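Worked example 2:
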Amino acid sequence: MSRNFDLVIFDCDGVLMDSEIVSARVVAADMTAHGLPTTPDVAMARFVGTSLRNMKPIIEAERGAPLPDDWNDRMVTKIAEAMAVDVSPIAGARAVLERLNALGIAWRIASNSADEEMDAKFGKTGFLDLTAGRTHSAPRLFARGGQPKPAPDVFLDAARTEGVLPDRCVVIEDSAPGVTGAVAAGMICYGFAPHGDGAHLRAAGAHGIIDRLDLVPGLVMAQSVNA
C-alpha cells in the first residue's frame, strides 16, 4: 500500500502523555512562590507548549525582577520529580505506537521537554521499552545553537536522525507553538484536539484536526480520514 508519509513525529505532552496539567501545577506553585499568585489552570492555559527557556523571560517581566540563574535546571528537576509519581498516558497512546511498529512505519518524539522529564514520564507509564532511542529534546539541541518550539529545530533533528525529508513527515501536535514549529520545518501537521474543535491549531497552520490517536496510521497509509 502506498504511503503519504515516511515518518510520524509525535509531540510528547498532551499527545502521548497526559502531563501538561502536572507541569502546570509545578509552574503555578513556582510563580506563586515568586510573588505571582497563579492557579494550575491559568498556568496551563498561558504556557501550554511553551518551553521553560521561553517561559522564563515572560515571568521575569511580570514580576519585574530576574529569576535565579539556575531556575531552568531547578524547574526541570521539579517537573521530573512530579512526573515520576503523577502522570498517565493519553488514551490510545501505547496502542498507536505498537500499531505503527507492526505496520513498519517509523515514528519519533519531538518535545520541548528535557530528557530528564521525558525519562520520568515514560518510566512512570511503562513506555520506555517503546520510546528508548526515539526521543528528541529541544534542550538537548541548545549546545548546538538549537531553539525550542515554535522554532523548527527539534522536528528537523528527528527527521534528520531517521533520514527522512521534512516533506515526508507528518507531525501530531496539540499546541500552537508545536504546530508553528512543524509548519516552519516544512512538515504536514495535524492538530490533536480530543476535547475541542482545535480551531487554535488550525489558526496556527494545522493541515487538519484529529481527536483520536488511532486515526494516525490512516494518515500515513493513504486512507481517508475525517480531519
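Strands lie at 7-10, 17-18, 88-89, 106-111, 135-137, 169-173, 188-192, 208-210. The radius of gyration is 17 Å.
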